[in-house]
């Protein structure tokens, strides 16, 4: 009787050749890939509903951007025609800057939405950059005379945290220089 030895389970490949478990979470572009749609019919329908909702959000964001541009024009008009005529104070300029930055933040959010629609990815780096821009807008609009020091400290902590997060996401360790072997 010929007996075969029991088959050994195959060994996993060495850690260096295995794809990283975090590869989906942290690729070169720093985007989180949305998991593929499972074969379940109900989940396919729900996924389609979510995509439809995101498309509606994109259309609404375009309306918000257009409304924001009109608001910037209106704010500029109001500030220029107010007494003294054709003169802007520093506070007027800050109000106009705030309006501009609000529109730019809306554009960044629209870009995030369109990236999600096109690629089913969440652009984490861009979301952090948008948050930094929103905080920068808040800082520009602050009147430091009337603020509690704890509030200013909290905003500074948020800026440092977002800046550190953006830096960590963007950081690429230096590649060792390969010397020519002769």
UniProtKB/TrEMBL annotation:
Region (Disordered): 1-33
Positions with biased composition (Pro residues): 1-16
Pfam families reported for this sequence: PsiE
Compositionally biased region (Basic and acidic residues): 24-33
Top-level taxon in the UniProt lineage: Bacteria
Keyword terms: Cell membrane, Membrane, Transmembrane, Transmembrane helix
Transmembrane helix among keywords: yes
Keyword Membrane (UniProt): yes
Topology within the bilayer: Multi-pass membrane protein
Ranges that cross the membrane: 52-70, 82-110, 122-144, 150-169
Subcellular location field: Cell membrane
Protein name: Phosphate-starvation-inducible PsiE family protein
